[in-house]
Amino acid sequence: MSDEVTEERADEEEDAQDEQADGTTVPQEGEAGPHSGDGHGSPDKSAKQTEEEPAPTRAEVSNYEIVEHWFNVAAERLELPDDVAAVLRSSYREVQVQVPVRLGDGKIHVFSGYRVQHNGARGPYKGGIRFHPEVDLDEVRALAELMTWKTAIVDIPYGGAKGGVNVDPSKLESRELQAVARSFMDKIEKVLGPQRDIPAPDVGTNAQVMAWLMDEYGKLHGHTPACVTGKPIALEGSYGREAATGRGVVQVFKEAAPEIDLDPSKATFVLQGFGNVGAWAGRLMQELGATMVGVADANGAIASSDGIDAEELAAHVRDDGKVTDFDSDAEEIDPDDLVALDCDVFIPAALGGMLHSDNADRMRCRMIVEGANSPTTPRADEILNENGVFIVPDVLANAGGVVVSYFEWAQNLQHFRWGEDEVNEKLGGTMRRAFGEVAERARENDTPMRPAAYELGIERVVEAASTRGYI
Ligand code: NAD
């Protein structure tokens, strides 16, 4: 696409009406949603401050507004009464705690920790814990709601929750990180438990952090492996959990490929983010025969039309390497240009809001499989749909992690262990079934996959809540 056309499209966008084809309004820059802002309080200024990382242009809406938008679209189509929608829209419980930790400089630093339990109609609350300097209540609230719909869409017996601490783990020593994890658990353990709310890893946390959380919970309640998932194998973690989200992304990609007449073994793909989700998705895509032609992490991006070896890059990153230091024929590119690379499939696997109104029109892919949570703003989604891009939404595409977390929890409650093949096979069955159900509804309703997925999830939560007599 020429620059002229891009500029023309940008002008048209400015003039464009905010009304979508489905009759709902796409939130625009500066429009505050009911929960926008920084929650009950700003991140504590005494928290260890981090250097600014190069961030691509910002999303025009918050993560919360993204989730709310899709909830509203589905609620309208399902003709949910306003009072029922109000219950489903709000969180059941929101906890904000002080996380004071003495760091290596000898001073006490006070971080802010959050746990939001959105809806528990279908079972115990379930959702990851994020350690990231930009974590705030608004973001955690959005991610908790997303978990409610996600667990319902893949039909596992959980509600939705999320947690986080506004800390940058890359700036902390291992023992400092351990202190943050333990201090956070001490403050929130009263609202957790295997039958109440079960955390898991997310951005900035991993199996080691889960081990510390489990150990701290165990000091107060006795050994309780089912209190967190995503644990190391040595501590009753499940085989296949670490790879599960990336594996689920690739499993739904295989289901989606025929929708655009794509042979998975000949596909080219770009990964935005090369952490847990990105690195596994990249390696498993490569196993299918697909070629990675671009990849980015928080430090920068590289591209090569001849392909970048995902397996070797994963080993490099495991040894604390950056994507841009990777020794290969790939060239370093401006991270903002990653979205404009020619490819069949673009896989966002970093943070929310990275595909937005300013960059969606530059995308050259035919399909997006959302490994990250809320990577696409509603305006970007609209542009991409107009441009014929097939999108497998986050609430379906990245559910593999919580599915295997469910398997881990089920194994822990019985103190049994399943083999890796069994876990992967059961995961594949769950993801294929969920993809089929969402695709069928999308066909019936003649909508993209995202509204269909939200409708399915919301309907299931409504059914559980009303059968309980809660609404
Ligand atoms: P992670 O911390 O392991 O990796 C995040 C990656 O994103 C890193 O490579 C980081 O460098 C990169 N990144 C950060 N800012 C970036 C930027 N501006 N540009 C490009 N890359 C950037 O986190 P993760 O667990 O892989 O999670 C990634 C996404 O997937 C998140 O949105 C998370 O909520 C979602 N998710 C994770 C899981 C899970 O099981 N871990 C499950 C479901 C959804």
What would you note in describing this structure?
It is globular and about 55 Å long. The protein has helices spanning 3-15, 63-77, 82-89, 137-153, 174-188, 207-221, 241-256, 276-288, 310-318, 378-386, 394-397, 400-414, 420-445, 449-468; strands spanning 93-102, 108-119, 125-131, 160-165, 197-201, 268-272, 291-297, 300-303, 331-333, 345-348, 367-369, 390-392. Helix content is 41%, strand content 15%. It has 471 residues and is α/β, with parallel strands linked by helices. Nicotinamide-adenine-dinucleotide (NAD) binds at residues 55-56, 201-204, 245, 272-278, 296-298, 335, 349-351, 371-373, 398, 401. Nicotinamide-adenine-dinucleotide binds at residues 55-56, 201-204, 245, 272-278, 296-298, 335, 349-351, 371-373, 398, 401.
